[in-house]
User: Fold these one by one.
Assistant:
Number 1:
Amino acid sequence: MPAFHHPQSDTLWSYASGSLDEASSVLVATHLALCPECRAEVARMEALGGEMLEDVGMAAVSASSLDDIMARLDSPALVKAIPQVEKIPANDSVLPSPLRDYVGSGVGAVAWRKLTKGVEYFDLPVRAEGHRARLLKIASGTRVPSHGHGGEEITMVLAGGYTDEFGSYERGDVATADVTQVHQPVADAGEPCICLTVTRGALIPSAIFSLTSRVFRRLSA
Ligand SMILES: [Zn+2]
């Protein structure tokens, strides 16, 4: 079943052009493994980007920016290849291969750590400064504490599902929350909800968040 919720267009553009940070690139590559629609969209963007580069011509590329481009191409940090349709091995039906490479194992062997009651986490070894990529395992029916965001948070569901103020999300679905949104995800009944979240900036508990956003609104009024 195709995913219902997808990464935002500017995120796909950044991915297609190779300028997306490592943590978000892992999430997008994982989504592409499950979403033919976004795979086609990224392929279209890449073709368009290639045409634009040809139009500009290599003469316009300065020596230093060429160095930047070559360094970026060499960087193992970037998950740049568009994954083919995922063939899931019988022993792991949860983690598509771009993500499994980062986790270093199937979901059964993940070294989960306790975050709070009913919620476990595993941090992916990404090097993007100021970004965090984290697997979360939320027991069915668990309410994650209500929180706002100091920066953007992108979440993709890998197993089970959850519902918050903005909708319901199942395997392959992506939700993007910005600094204005406070939400309280609740894991669906049934199996645990396993998801990948990428955050830029800290999470802020909603009590503090509403206070700071009130102050911010007052300051910017
Ligand atoms: Zn998609």
Note: The domain at 105-210 is CATH 2.60.120.10 (Jelly Rolls).
Number 2:
Amino acid sequence: MALRIGIVGCGKIAGNHARALQQVPGVEVVGCCDPDLERARTFAAAHGITTAVGSVGELLDLGLDACTVCTPHPVHEEVVVAAAQAGIHVLCEKPIAVDVVAADRMIEAADRAGITFGVLFQRRFWPAARRIRDAIDDGRIGVPVVGEASVILHRPSSYYSADAWRGRWDTDGGGVLMTQAVHQIDMLQWFMGEAVQVSGFIRTHTHAEHIETEDSASAVVSFASGGTATVTATTGANHNLGNRVTVIGQTGAIASVLEFPEGQEGVNEIWTVPGSTEFRAPFTSGVRANLDVTEVNAGLSDFHTLQVQDFADAVLTGRAPAVTGRDARASLAIVAAVYESSRTGRVVDLTPAPAPVTTKENA
Ligand SMILES: NC(=O)c1ccc[n+]([C@@H]2O[C@H](COP(=O)([O-])OP(=O)(O)OC[C@H]3O[C@@H](n4cnc5c(N)ncnc54)[C@H](O)[C@@H]3O)[C@@H](O)[C@H]2O)c1
């Protein structure tokens, strides 16, 4: 019996989902939905999907086993909760949601329904990223003590004007941190462990005339391990230098994963891990750096396929998917804490407050 899957939201990234799902044996894409029904129909025709409908309810009624969610981030919660309540497994695009309270409601709905709930962070499937995770696990890097996530991107103003929801707090939930850097923040905390304190600043510079969310951010994160890291992010650079995550471990070993041009498979640009030392020099004149966002998405397609394969296998075998809702909550919590820190001027504590001690006096 094939796993019957539907796609919710038929915009730009949904194409990666359709192509990925069609490559997974034992999976059948039975329908797609978008409130823009014409868009859903065009998408269905382009990807050989038999049924296109205009609402999530109609899609879930097709008798799905699972769905993938490709709507704007503030809409993730209502779709994931509706799917969970219908007993349908869900793979949701990043970020999980735009605030941690919504993420908690999604996780709770999935737990209550006993469904598989995964969140898409396909860069974790790069061999270069897994190589770092493995070298942390086997002790060659040791506990990461210093980290750096660098997200130096170019977006033209047309990137924001093309989709009415982008760049506004109510419909996008954030800017470069929420939409782009959340990938590298996810990878940073996957390497470094639980984040406990965050401080930072957000600003809107290059795109100030047409967006209200941040196009630039600088932040510092401290981790339960004692390690610390910085995050630098912008969509306002005139050249797209892509994304880099670097860690330095207790052994002194340095390992980085660089994505340049943006959307291309990440590579270990720096690798000084016992056993081998490698350096790459990727920034040379003549590389076309400022790719269109559709080219960026296309470059990531193979890794969407790996994560969709992992999700389908998780559903079929009952194991946890590679990136769970709880895993995805962690990067959102860091992004939300940078916003809070920038607003309040304070360091934000991410650790839960200790339970009050009950004594004879306060019982
Ligand atoms: N993993 C990645 O690398 C990656 C890359 C791009 C986008 N994304 C994520 O995918 C999501 C969508 O981004 P996009 O660039 O495809 O946006 P988009 O604007 O191109 O597409 C979003 C689609 O969702 C539809 N939609 C809105 N409300 C809906 C609802 N209630 N039900 C069904 N459909 C609805 C819109 O009509 C639109 O067609 C975002 O959360 C984004 O962060 C992830």
Note: Residues 8-14, 33-36, 39, 56, 70-73, 75, 93-94, 120, 122, 163, 179, 297, 300 surround nicotinamide-adenine-dinucleotide (CB under 6 Å).
